[in-house]
Design brief:
The chain is α+β, with helices and mostly antiparallel strands. The chain has helices at residues 22-32, 65-75; strands at residues 8-15, 37-45, 48-59, 80-88. The protein has a four-stranded antiparallel β-sheet, with no helix packed on it. The radius of gyration is 14 Å and the shape is globular. The N and C termini lie far apart (33 Å).
Length: 95
């Protein structure tokens, strides 16, 4: 059955080319699809101090056509995209 698109979050590890604008080019397909990226963390790649990988959380599930479409566009920029999976998230309650 899987996680419903509106209730899920998908985590990715992404490697981008080391060039100006690569991160922006990677992010644009998500903006264009109306998807929120709730986390972006950069980490240098061991042995390659000028290269970085990014841990990214997308608000949405791989079963969502918008997520798949955005990943297809982002994949044209990325050197590598690895999905860590989709998991359910609870709604936040404000007191």
């Amino acid at each position: 059955e899987g996680v419903k698109a509106k209730d899920g979050r998908t985590s990715l590890i992404v490697t981008l080319p080391n060039r100006p604008g690569a991160l922006v080019d990677f992010l644009l397909p998500f903006r264009d699809a109306g998807l929120n990226l709730s986390r972006i963390i950069s980490r240098s790649i061991a042995g390659s101090p000028a290269r970085y990988s990014f841990l990214t959380d997308i608000d949405g599930s791989m079963s969502d056509a918008k997520v798949r479409r955005a990943l297809k566009g982002a994949g044209k920029v990325a050197e590598n995209i690895q999905s860590l999976g989709t998991y359910p998230v609870r709604k936040r309650y404000v007191s």
